[in-house]
Amino acid sequence: MHKLKLNSTAAFAVAAACVAAGTVIGAPPDVERPPITGLAHVGLFVSDIDKADQFYGHVLGYAHFSLDKPTGGLMLNYYKVNDHQYIEIYPGLKDDQDRLSHVAFETTDAR
Hints:
The protein is α+β, with helices and mostly antiparallel strands. It has one domain: 2,3-Dihydroxybiphenyl 1,2-Dioxygenase, domain 1, CATH 3.10.180. Helices cover 27% and strands 34% of the residues. Strands 2-3-4-1-5 form a five-stranded mixed β-sheet, with helices on one face. A hairpin with a 5-residue loop joins strand 2 and strand 3. The longest helix has 19 residues. It is globular and about 45 Å long. It starts with 7 loop residues before the first helix and ends with a strand.
């Protein structure tokens, strides 16, 4: 069996292009918007934080740090893709919940 080894930066770029294309196509033509210069980060919910850490931290090799809730316990893990992009992983995915928490874009002027 052959394993497909995907360049993580390329996969991230493809996802960003797809999202940006959908944003541009759906925008009214008379609305002036600052340019989207890239994908800053995505936030995802997971049901198993240890498996997510194994994948993002060990399989993909992304450096990470954790942020705890003020009341204690893990709030999220950040995984650095490169100097401009990262992935946020939130524990506690529920059965009826979407995995995608949010997508953040990079721009030259956030108004």
